[in-house]
Amino acid sequence: MSELAFLSAAAIAARIRSRELGCEEVLRHYLDRVDRYNGRLNALVVDVREQALEEARAADRAVAAGDDLGPLHGVPMTIKESYNLAGTPTTWGNPGWKDNIAREDAESVKKLKQAGAVIFGKTNVPLMLADFQSYNAIYGTTNNPYDHARAPGGSSGGSAAALAAGLTGIETGSDIGGSIRNPSHYCGVFGHKPTWNLLWIRGHSPPGDLRSKPDISVIGPLARCAEDLETAVGAMAGPDEITARGYRLDLPSLNGRTLKDLRVAVWADDECVPVSADVRERVEQVAAAFRDGGAAVDGEARPDFDPARGHETYSVLLQATMAARMPDAEYETLREHVAKLDPNDDSAAARVFRAQVASFKTWKQNDEQRSHLRWKWHEFFRDFDLVLMPIMSTAAFRHDHRPMGQRTITVNGAPQPYFDQVFWAGLASASYLPSTVIPTGLNDEGLPIGVQIVGPQYGDLITIGAARMMEAAGFRFTPPSGYDD
Fold first, then answer.
1. What pTM was estimated for this model as a whole?
2. What is the DSSP-derived secondary structure letter of residue 208?
């Protein structure tokens, strides 16, 4: 029965529609696996199985009655802890929010349920969704299923770990600095960071915040196959109720184009944030697969901006947005700290602190610079359909719970600043671009490596379509050992 655990959501839904499987039967299979394996992973941290079992039985009745079924009908699903799920806590790993019980589902959760998904729990996150690891004082530490001594990524680390271990059928996370793409890479699954504001984010927010469209931040799916990403995006995408008065969703797609019709750029490494030899090799392997399929591949082409300056712009916008989530008292303490900084202190830490409490004028200046980046990317995508690049410099690293300022990432034998790793995420995030991460198999240490496929704004179905092509070419999910009984 382990085959069932690692099926795609599309395959599960198809077997339910054909009545080869029952909805309750599939859910109980995943719940049994949670009981057997979650103790070693700590991926699932909120369990609503009794409610889910009732919903699964209702889903079985709908099948028996011949009702119209959604694309995810009966598929067992977990969601990131930071989403509101009625009757459960939404804490973002913050002990101060442990009693924040959601009154209703997030808008995206409502849409997933309308598509037929049966949600049976929530998965772990780091404190305030602000780390490449997933641990917090409420729920503890989540382990990587390929090596329990390593992190599964963050902030959607519980999401990716649960998927990779076969504990859930499909997942949905969020991303501002790689929080969907980083765990997808570390845990060997597919993940999609959508175009900014393509998926209504309401209900994925701090307590009391409507969060219609916070800067940079998006929500999006993780899955064991690329087709599931497209299904989930289709289920969740669309304007909010106010915007829907005048706007309708009409995403471009590959529209029948094949590999030989695509123009692909390759950004395999960068002196700003170098990547390990095995990560670079995987980017080049994916590029070779495009080339072998007939695509026009260019390893030198770049958008016309300085990556270092672009990263500075992204960093200010990112830090300001992340700090806006802080409780008021914590933010005021930060402001007081910044006021006492030596004006001549231009250290990395000082720049981060200043960005976190940036004035509106400073934020707006960087927003203007972001506009220039967006237009540079727009011009670039006149000549190219896609660009391939890493999402992180290395495969998953060992758990490191030291203070942030003491952490580093070892790349090709040399230590690199921990949070410089957001460089690769920021290339897409700062300019609102979609990015799809595909798995490329395991390295010599048995750890997954992913590659991100970035496309033009609103080119979500194009990057996912390219991911489906690469999956067909052999870049598929590889289950971890020890989870196959």
1. 0.97
2. T
